[in-house]
Write a structure and sequence with these properties.
Blueprint: H1 4-43, H2 48-62, H3 66-76, H4 86-111, H5 115-123, H6 128-158, H7 170-181, H8 184-214
Helix pairs in contact: 1-2, 1-4, 1-7, 2-4, 3-4, 4-6, 5-6, 6-8, 7-8
Length: 216
């Protein structure tokens, strides 16, 4: 069992790791969202070359484990002259990997928009780009929110994978403490609870979004 002194010593270290976890998550989420939208728009662009490129990229990236992608970015990139810190490699690797999952979420949302509304906009003389911006994307955004939220939850948990390239996030700090104290059960239970505390607000938010947009 952990004493009060143990908690006083270990909780600040775990809090520091949790902060890094949040930083990795937020930065990777921005990368994944922006790139995911790019890949999705390429898929539905109607331009065969762009659509095929995006589809091939998404399938390839989704077929490679995130750990392998992190290893490649952190260990292989320096060999070709690209030096990245562990944090930068973690953000880029996680963000790029999840951009392909986000792309499928966005694509599904775009394709779920009623084609009749697009045809009506075309009949009014609206250009394709304007239709996309004013008609398709606002509705696709609402449709995509629940699965987007679920993907965010998975990404938050997968930030733990960046510990393999020495990003000092929550699970990395927990592993260091456990290896020095041999209190594996107690320390990793604390780590699990901390992840749960971070994930629960997202889980509740996703549940509310699913109820709200599921009724529409």
């Amino acid at each position: 069992m952990l004493s009060r002194n143990d908690l006083a010593e270990y909780l600040p270290l775990l809090a520091k790791g949790a902060l890094v976890t949040v930083e990795v998550f937020v930065c990777a989420l921005v990368v994944a969202t922006l790139l995911g939208m790019v890949w999705a728009l390429m898929r539905v662009s109607g331009v065969r070359a762009l659509s095929r490129f995006s589809k091939a990229l998404i399938n390839i990236i989704r077929g490679i484990p995130i750990l392998v992608q992190l290893f490649y970015i952190y260990f292989v990139f320096p060999e070709i002259g690209i030096q990245l810190s562990a944090f930068e490699a973690g953000v880029i690797g996680l963000g790029f990997a999840y951009s392909c999952y986000m792309a499928e979420v966005f694509r599904a949302g775009i394709e779920a928009v009623d084609p009749g509304q697009v045809e009506a906009a075309q009949s009014l003389g609206m250009r394709r780009a304007l239709i996309l911006w004013r008609v398709v994307l606002p509705q696709a955004f609402k449709i995509s929110l629940p699965p987007y939220g679920n993907t965010c939850i998975m990404m938050l948990k997968d930030t733990s994978q960046t510990s393999i390239i020495t990003v000092a996030e929550l699970s990395f700090e927990g592993k260091l403490i456990a290896s020095s104290t041999f209190k594996n059960t107690e320390i990793f239970s604390l780590v699990a609870v901390w992840y749960l505390v971070m994930c629960v607000p997202l889980i509740l938010l996703v549940g509310r979004l699913e109820k709200k947009f599921g009724r529409q």
